[in-house]
Design brief:
The structure is a single chain. This protein starts with a strand and ends with a helix. The protein has a single domain, classed as fumarase, CATH 3.20.130.10. The model has no long low-confidence stretch (mean pLDDT about 90). The relative contact order is 0.22. The chain is of the alpha/beta class. Helix content is about 25%, strand content about 25%. Helix 2 links the parallel strand 2 and strand 3. The protein has six helices and seven strands.
Length: about 180
Amino acid sequence: MQNIFKLTTPLSVEDIENLKIGDKILLSGIIYTARDSAHKRLYELIMTGKDLPIDIIGQVIYYAGPSPTKPGKPVGSAGPTTSYRMDSFAPKLIELGLKGMIGKGQRSREVIDAIKKYKAVYFGATGGAGALIAKCIRNSEVVAYHDLGPEAIHKFEVVDFPLIVINDINGNDLYLEGIKTYRKE
């Protein structure tokens, strides 16, 4: 049976050091959304020595671009996007203090190596469940790159956002372990 952990952002190494692949997480606190275009802009700022529009130390970035907000709701549907599109940017953000990422799909060897070296974690969110995930989001505001529309950086306040650990700080990979399990049978 997998463990269930309640975590609150910002995350520290102590918060995530005992997490194992397959552990279930209920995440609360502040998280930020960022997709490809926002990541590219963040990376360019880093490479030119400029300040980022958000403090990423101990933070979690959710790879999502929420749909338009319905009246009376803080956000529209907010399902995860495929993570590999951020893989060329993620190692640098992890090196600078990012502690968690949320998305769907496998990560590159470079991202997993950075996760292991700098002690971060990659969480999976259930694809296709964006409307249900949105129920965990209490507040939403655009904090950077308004011109990117749904791909702008949003600051979400979340309560009990359901996740699963895909890559832990030891570099373990739930996808690879899952394949091994089924190949044994």
